[in-house]
Amino acid sequence: MRERGVTAVPRPVIALLAATLVAQITWQAARPAPVARAEALGSPYPTAVTRVLTGDEVIAAAQLAALYLQAFDNQPGVSVPFRDLDYVRVEQWLTSMLELDPRGQYPLMMASQLYAQVPVAAKQRAMLDFVHRRFLEDPDRRWRWLAHAVITARHRLHDLKLALRYAEDIAHHARGAPGWARQIRIFILEDLGERESASILLGGLLAEGEVTDPQEIRFLTERLEALKAAEISSSSTAK
Amino acid sequence: MRLAATIARYTLLEAVRTRLPLLVVSAILLLVSASLFAQQLAIAEGTRFQIGLYAAGARLGAVFIAGLYVLASMAREFDDKGLDVMLALDLPRAHYLLGKLAGYLAIGMLLAAAAALPLAFAAPWSAALQWAISLGLELSVVIAFALFCIVSLGHLTVAASLMAGFYLLGRSLAAVRLMSANPIAGGDTLAHQVMHWTAEGLALLMPAFDEWTRTAWVVDAPADWTHIAVLAGHGALYVMLLAAAAMFDFYRKDF
Asked: For helices B93-122 and B20-41, what crossing angle results, to 10°?
């Protein structure tokens, strides 16, 4: 359809359009910017309902849910909202995302890297426990997040026993994990003062030929020798 | 303006004759049945489930029906050359468009009232009333936007797509702004800055539908009446803006 020039439009119409446009922009500009409120985080829809609502677009639904959850806490002064978040709800959201998209890594990344960093031990433990439980469902794909959990348990919670339990589960269940991840338990044992157990494990690893990378073999051999030297010196001191 | 009132009355009559009321009643009955089914399935909070699902479904359904009805009705008007006949009369284009808009807005209000009727039996009446008023305002904006789209673009498919995009963006823009304002990583990149300012720019031009017709009003606690008054003010302003934009494009068409 052909169009006429702007001159064909009556002036009152142009004036009304300009006035209402300015009023709309002023109105919206005067409104406060949306603020994320940690306490306002609601429960996610049940997985079946989400499937229906999204026309079974489960991966997109899980991704949108991840971004939605993220929007509740990624505001300035991040540690305060994290602390205020209801972690039962957070876990419900993360569970829902994993149910929708079991191959997705984002929820476990959020649990281990974001929500487990909050300076509240109980909340940290809840997130580590969540990562551990979900790791056991699919160890070969999710081991890296439990490895992060080991580090958090070791360095933030200072709970070596918990770190050791997670590290042992990586070694026992995640056959597809690289050597370094499966060897974390050795260093935790060392930290626990159980040098003998650590050196037995390390010696076993080297003897069984599980480690094939020459650099890694050299590093682990040096580590084994250091452990043995420490054992000898501690036993001579005891005598 | 008497002619505009006549056009509005005939627009309402057209809705009755094209069986729009039957469609609305059927949709409401279907949603009520679905919500009752959900109530039976729920182990706890059955009534909350029922009201929540009905309110969310009725809101979306009403927007869908109202928007598509306006688009289809205006497209038929163009195709049947009814518009050409009207323009041949001594009738300013603005009066024709305002008459059509008034008729569609009346349909929107009736649709909102019908959708809220089941809620009046299940939720507190004040909450159901607030929900109905807010839905009426929301439908008014959607109707005005649909009218603007079909007048400006002329094509049903393009206009329907634009209308759906407008509504979905209006519902999610606050979340988009929150996400873009405080990224966890990559906030300094040019792409992110462009996205952020685009979202902020859109927020100036669009209504924030996430604050309208909230299900929480009927399942948890009613809204503040001041909030409803603010929505009414903003709704009226936005309908005027869209009507002016539609008139601007309508006057430029060379029929």
From this structure: 30
Q: How many CA atoms lie within 13 A of A233 on its CB side?
A: 6
Q: CB pairs under 8 A, 24+ apart, for A209-215?
A: A210/A179, A210/A182, A211/A179, A213/A179
Give me the pLDDT at residue A76, please.
42
Q: Do B241 and A17 touch (CB under 8 A)?
A: yes
> What percent of chain A has a predicted confidence (pLDDT) above 90?
28
Q: What type of residue is A5?
A: G
> pLDDT tens, A167-191?
999 989 988 888 778 888 888 887 7
The Cβ-side half-sphere exposure at B155, using a 13 Å CA radius, reads: 5
**Which whole number is the average pLDDT over B24-40?**
91
Look at residue B146 in the predicted model and tell me its pLDDT: 97
- B112-156: pLDDT as tens digits: 999 999 999 988 999 999 999 999 999 999 999 999 999 999 889
Residues whose CB is less than 8 angstroms from the CB of residue B253 and which lie 6 or more positions away in sequence, other chains included: A1, A3, A4, B151
Contact flag B251-A31 (C-beta cutoff 8 Å): no
Q: Is pLDDT at A80 greater than 50 in this prediction?
A: no
How confident is the model at residue A79, as a pLDDT? 43
- Map out the domains of chain B as residue ranges: 2-252
Closest to B232 (Cα-Cα) out of B144, B140, B168: B140
Q: What is the largest CA-CA distance in chain B?
A: 64
pTM of the predicted protein model: 0.69
Residues of B whose CB is below 8 A from A41: none
The position carrying tokens 């160890």 is A139
Partner-chain contact A27 B237, CB within 8 Å: yes
A20 touches chain B (CB under 8 A): yes
Which residues in chain A are contacts of B237 at CB distance < 8 A?
20, 23-24, 27
**Which of A13, A16, A76 minimises the CB distance to B182?**
A76
Whether this model's ipTM surpasses 0.90 comes out as: no
Q: Lowest-confidence range among A32-41, A89-98, A152-161? A: A32-41
